[in-house]
Structure formats: structure tokens, C-alpha cells
Amino acid sequence: MPGERKRMPNPWRDLPLQDYEGHVSFASVGQAQMLARTLGLLVEQHAPRSAAIIGCAGGNGMDRIGPGQLERLVAVDINHAYVEAVGLFEPVDLIYAALAPIR
Fold first, then answer.
1. How many domains are contained in the chain?
2. What is the CB neighbour count within 10 angstroms for residue 33?
């Protein structure tokens, strides 16, 4: 149909959280550990009142944030199942963080 948008498949939308978390947690990969450590350090060093985790997966370090450290935490991911797993944001169809400020 003319003018109809064709949606490109995105493998991240269908990757089960358990598979993703399993891969990034391997000691040889170390991604989950690095993300958790970095988030914990950033929250500790900058003491923000709120934070957004873009690409939240199953938490990506949210467990490093202690009670009362943040007033608000928002989790965003392209995979709706990941967002549902952490329960901190309503699913969206598009995530664009190209100009996200870095503090």
C-alpha cells in the first residue's frame, strides 16, 4: 500500500530476558557486572534525585540503588517484556536517546 511504513524486524524485541541476562552475566563477558558497578558508582557520586535507565533489561544495576537513594527511577527498553520485568515504565514503540545528557 502506498505510503505504508515498513517495520524492520528488531531482534531485541524478541530476545527472552533469561537469554540476555544469561549471556551478559558470563564471567568472560562481564557486561552485567560492569553495568551494575557503574550505575551504583554514578548514583553514589552524583546523588541524583531521579534517574532513567535506558536499556534496562532485567535491571542493569538497579539492585545497587539503596532504599531512599532516589525519589524516582524510570526504566526504558525496546523490549516490552524487559520493562514489564522491572515494572518501572509503560512500554513505548520508539526509544531515541541520541542527545541524552551525560552528567
1. 1
2. 14
CB 72 within 8 A of CB 98: no
Q: How confident is the model at residue 37 (pLDDT cuts 50, 70, 90)?
A: very high
pLDDT of residue 16: 95
Q: Give CA–CA dist 51/59, Å, rounded.
A: 13
* Residue of 79, 77, 71, 68 lying closest to 35 (CA atoms): 77
Comparing 69 with 90, which gets the higher pLDDT?
A: 69
Classify residue 101: in a domain, yes or no: no
Domain, as residue range, for 42: 16-86
Q: Say how far apart CA 50 and CA 74 lie, in whole Å.
A: 8
Q: How confident is the model at residue 55 (pLDDT cuts 50, 70, 90)?
A: confident
Let me know if residue 4 belongs to a domain.
no
Residue 94: per-residue pLDDT: 63
Instruction: Answer whether residue 31 is part of any domain.
Output: yes
- Whether 100 and 80 have beta carbons less than 8 Å apart is answered as no
